[in-house]
Amino acid sequence: MRASAGSDVTTNDSKTADTVRKLEERLAREHQARLDAEAIAKQSAADLYQKHQALLLLQRVASASNEALNIDQAFQTVLDLVCTHMHWPIGHMYIPTRTGHLCPTGIWHLDDEARFDAFRTLTENTPLAPGVGLPGRCFSEGKPLWVVDVAVDANVPRFASAVESGVRVGFAFPVVAGNVVVAVAEFFFADATEPDASVLSLMADVGVQLGRVVERERAKAKLLDDAFHDPLTGLPNRALFLNRLEHVFEMAARHKKAPFAVLCLDLDRFKVVNDSLGHQAGDGLLREVAARLGTAVRRSDTLARLGGDEFGILVEGLRDVSDAMRVAQHVNTALGAPFMLGAQKVFATVSIGIAYHDARYEKPGDMLRDADIAMYRAKEQGKARHQVFDREMQARARSRLELESNLRQVVTRQELRLHYQPVVSLKTAQVVDFEALVRWQHPEMGLVPPAKFIPVAEETGLIVEIGAWVIEEGCRQLQQWRKAGLPQSMSVTVNLSTRQLSAPNIVEDIVRIGRETGLTLSHLKLEITESAVIEQPERAAETLKELKRLGVGLLLDDFGTGYSSLSYLHQFPIDVLKIDGSFVRKLEPGNKNAELVRTIVVLAKNLGMDVIAECVETYEQLELLKELGCEYVQGYYFSKPVEANEAMKLVHQPFKMERPRF
Fold first, then answer.
1. How far apart are the first and last CA of the chain?
2. 463-483 and 506-517 helices, crossing angle to 10°
3. How many Cβ atoms from other residues are within 10 Å of residue 414's Cβ?
4. What's the pLDDT tens digit per position in 285-306?
5. H helix count then E strand count, the chain
6. Bridge-based pairing state of the strands 169-177 and 145-147
7. What angle is formed at CA 354 by the lines to CA 353 and CA 359, rounded to 5 degrees?
8. How far apart are CA 639 and CA 420, in angstroms?
9. What angle in degrees, to the nearest 10, is found between the helix axes of 197-228 and 71-86?
10. Which of 19, 283, 511, 609 has its CA 20 to 30 A from that of 245?
11. Average pLDDT score over residue span 486-506
12. What is the arrangement of strands in the sheet containing 350-356, beginning at the earlier edge strand?
């Protein structure tokens, strides 16, 4: 019984020990599981915290970048944010130059400026070629790079100064805009640390954020540049020119600066280049002129394209107005050589107006206005010259502006009148034709001379409307005369301006006028000048041929005054040549003018044309014209231009040729 009892006790003890062991093992496993769970939770929390901090950094970077006033401010703010987040003591920015090298900047984050002063000085005096040093390698490879120990890396030129400053690890990331590295951020810190993939990824994202800032600022800069520069020539435009002029005005008012002047330049006969060679050639000429003008001004002067073929120069630091005049002379000298537009050689001149600053000027725009007025005065005096503004010009400009304003309403107010000057046959002493000449009867200014308002009408384009009225009224009056007994062979001559001749609907308008007035177009004659046809000879020839097919007679006025009369004459279906009055007034037996008139008469007869001599005022001129073979004349010797009822009386009585009537 005892042996059996001892055996049972032993067995029970063994079971108890096994149970305890298993319980201990289970408790150990549960404890380890708790430790593992705690570790996982702790790591997850740490990872989550790191991700949250990384996200927070990116948000701060994005916010700071959007709020930055410029690129430098954005770079500085982001350097500070990154260094604070990563506990890095040094941060610095590089930017690439046009030569492709990396240029150090003054943008830094330094925890201890005194400690890192030597390293900073060395860095700012050490530009880096692509591939050289940590920033150079980052720039070339376009990705973040990590140097574990700068002291043992052969490609870290500043390693000694870095180690002396107490930092050994280097890191850099590129700032990328549009797949181009536009900057490199570099950092240094002390703890030897292996590359961290999460840090590399985070800093790559920061680089992208900064790249967006650069893209945004560059877009803004381009918009600003486009807003203030001429796209064709690259010069400042009118807005920037006025801005700089305003700045000079303010400085002069505050500090009594040396005098300055505004020059307004306008290309002479630029329209001829555009019309004959095309707008592409015209643009090419403007670019070449802009380049030449750039060589004629100082770097301190402002050269701008104000619009069209007009340029402006702001000249500062003058002693007196003669300095501004010398600039104008330099400009004309610079433009003296011909321009080559493809295979075509072109000469270009400019008319220049000068406004010199004085105490009377209160607004910048007033100076530009006065320079413009002086420029037009220079054009009136013969082009290719300069003119300094004076107060009389302003009075004339105001008068002209008032004249132009009134001129715009002459047709609707019915203020235009036609006067008629007879064309007389030297064979029959009878009137064969009337030239219709427009007059302006202003209710306050009275009868305005044509020489005063016709040039304004030409410049403004109002001549097209006025000219159409003249043609229609002339045709209507001729029809009334014919119904009143005027010879059916009689015709009326109307002057056709350059603008009218180039108008696209001139032929249709004349057809309409003939239909509405009932006049057969063979009784209408149009008088054109040589200058009107030589500007666009091919287009003019086609228009004149269409008019000729309608039966319209064509006269070439001022013949002999242009350099190209003979070369162009055969291209146009001209019926009559009119000898310019400048030859007739100086006509004397045997002189050069007499021989020239004889030559014109012979030429006209050989070409099947008639000849009319205008401005005949003396009996001696009349007799000499007879001897020279001229068949038709007009001028004050017979009659000045008169109103329609007076003109009718001239038809029914022959003129006496032996003595003057006036």
1. 181
2. 30
3. 10
4. 999 999 999 988 888 889 999 9
5. 23, 21
6. antiparallel
7. 140
8. 9
9. 170
10. 283
11. 89
12. 302-307, 310-315, 261-267, 350-356, 386-388
